[in-house]
Each structure stands twice: as C-alpha cells, then as structure tokens.
Amino acid sequence: MARGLAIDDTLSAQELRRLAFRERSVRTAKRMLAIANALSGMSRADAAAAAGMERQALRDAVVRYNAEGLAGLVDRPGPGRKPALTEGELALLAERIFKGPDPEAGGPSRWTLPDLAAFVDERFGKRVTPQSLSRILRREGFSYQKTRPVHPKASAKAREAFAKRGSVTR
Questions:
Q1: What are the start and end residues of every segment in region (Disordered) (predicted)?
Q2: Separation between Cα atoms, residue 84 and residue 128, nearest integer Å
Q3: What is the C-alpha to C-alpha distance for residues 100 and 104, in angstroms, rounded to an integer?
Q4: Smallest Cα–Cα separation from 8: which of 83, 92, 65?
Q5: Which of 13, 35, 59, 88 counts the most CB atoms within 10 A of its CB?
C-alpha cells in the first residue's frame, strides 16, 4: 500500500482545532479541521468528509500547510478584474489631459468627463462611462478642478488694471 503525504506536525491536532475554532474564515477553519482530523489518525477520506471537503482539497491544503504553515491555509486573493485601460492608454489619456482642450479646432473649451469618455471611445475603441472614467482618473492622481469663469467680452486691459490697483479707479 502506498504511503500518504506526510503532514507537518509542529502543531498538534488539538492546537489546530483550537485555532480553527477561533478562525473567522470558514474555509480556512475547514482546512485546519481536516488536517487536525488527519493528524489524529483518521483516514484522509474520512478526515476530508468530516470537514466537508473532498480528499483532493485536503491534499492541496496539506501541501500548502507543509510549505507555508498556517498562512498557507488562508484563501489567496483572486486575480481581479482586468483594468479598463492599459498603461499605454492611460499615458496617452494623461498626455491629452495635460495638453488641454483645443476650442479653435472645434473641440470643447474645457475637459468634461463625457468629452474624455468620447475621446477614449474614439481613440481606443473602448466604451467607458463617465463615472468609471472619474474613478480611473482619481486613481491615477487627477483631481476635479473647475476653471474660473471668464466672460467672453471681458477686457484684458480692464482685468490687468484691476489686478494692479483693485476696484478703485483714479
């Protein structure tokens, strides 16, 4: 008969059960209990069934436990969702934002999220909602800045005079 996979016995079955009782994660606690069952002399199939898992899952837990200790029994984070824009696309978008809008060429007079979302759609062929684009830009270090309104018929000469002397005319 083939010998099973050896289990690291630095912690006893009682200690593993005590730690499993205090563990917040149910999946981690099941792994601890299954290993404790196997350490106390149960067959691997019975130990896994008593903890509510398959024999292969117990074997995987034992391999991780032997290699990493208790830390190996904790769930690992998943890969997560792929980012909406790649690093290169983010760099081009940042360049476009820093360059500023060009109203003389028929573009907007200031950047708005819908304008930038339209740019992303045209340039990269990716549909991004303005709300999602707002999150992406905040994560990249951009902040919302509102430009100071300027009347189109305002006199630059009057603005300069006001900046020098204030509102009092002489």
A1: 146-170
A2: 8
A3: 12
A4: 65
A5: 35
Residue 56: HSE in the Cβ half-sphere, 13 Å Cα cutoff: 0
**Residue 76 DSSP class:** P
Amino acid of residue 163 = A
d(CA 140, CA 55): 45
Task: Print pLDDT tens along the chain (170 aa).
Answer: 446 788 888 899 999 999 999 999 999 999 999 999 999 999 999 999 999 999 999 999 999 999 999 999 999 888 998 999 999 999 999 999 988 888 777 777 788 899 999 999 999 999 999 999 999 999 999 887 776 777 777 888 887 888 887 665 55
pTM: 0.53
